[in-house]
Amino acid sequence: MNTASLQSASTLPTHLAGEMRSNHAGETGAVWIYKGVLAISRDAEVRAFAEHHLATEETHLSFFEDWLTSRQKSLLLPLWRVSGFVLGAVSALGGRSWVYASIEAVETFVVKHYESQYAALESFGDATLMAAIYQFCNDEADHRDEAGDEVQGQSGLLKAWCWVVGAGSEQAVKIARRI
Ligand SMILES: [Fe+2]
Ligand SMILES: [Fe+2]
């Protein structure tokens, strides 16, 4: 998506700048989740799923990457990359069912995260920005549903892991809004 018609990111109010920092951090994590999956998985179906999602996450990331100023980006980007990679790699070690369940857990969180920004975006009033965030949120909902369609019965361990993934994503966003 093109950032040329956007208002300068330096005009963002503090609250929204924090939200956009967390979006950039989250999309960084998302790209690295799929890199982690691809580093480990030899399952052709899982690899095709990860490659397809990775391409979308890269377009989301480049939007924030190009638009935000370097001072608006999280100082903890190396941590978000490593966390995403580890999440993806551990999921892939668990096999197909773990990858799908983990992606469903992450994307369920991400959809709510983007939706929570709608009111503030409307009052900021940049139509291009709103269209972009709506589109990203729709993409994440597609990712969630594609993964969810493949999730069958989950073991107790996998349920616990998905809880950790969801809670970890929530904490990461809280931190990335600030730092
Ligand atoms: Fe994304
Ligand atoms: Fe996604």
CATH C-level name: Mainly Alpha
List bound small molecules: fe (ii) ion
Q: In total, how many domains does the architecture comprise?
A: 1
CATH domain topology: Ferritin
Determine the number of helices (DSSP H or I, runs of at least 4 residues).
Answer: 7
Q: Which regions contain 5 or more consecutive residues with pLDDT less than 50?
A: none
Radius of gyration: 16 Å
Query: What percent of the residues sit in helical stretches (DSSP H or I)?
Result: over 70%
Total number of β-strand segments? 0
- Mean model confidence by pLDDT: 94
- Give the DSSP E fraction (strand runs of 2 or more residues): under 5%
The structural class is mainly alpha
The helix/strand series, from N terminus to C terminus, equals HHHHHHH
Task: Report the principal-axis shape.
Answer: elongated
Main beta-sheet strand count, sense and barrel state: none
Per CATH, which architecture?
Up-down Bundle
Distance between the first and last residues' Cα: 26 Å
Structure description:
- It is a single chain.
- This protein is mostly helical and 179 residues long.
- It has a single domain, classed as Ferritin, CATH 1.20.1260.
- It is built from seven helices and no strands.
- The longest helix is centred in the N-terminal third of the chain and has 27 residues, at 14-40.
- The protein is elongated.
- The mean pLDDT is 94.
- Bound molecules: fe (ii) ion (FE2) (2 copies).
- One fe (ii) ion is lined by residues 30, 53, 57, 107, 140, 143.
- One fe (ii) ion binds at residues 30, 53, 57, 107, 140, 143.
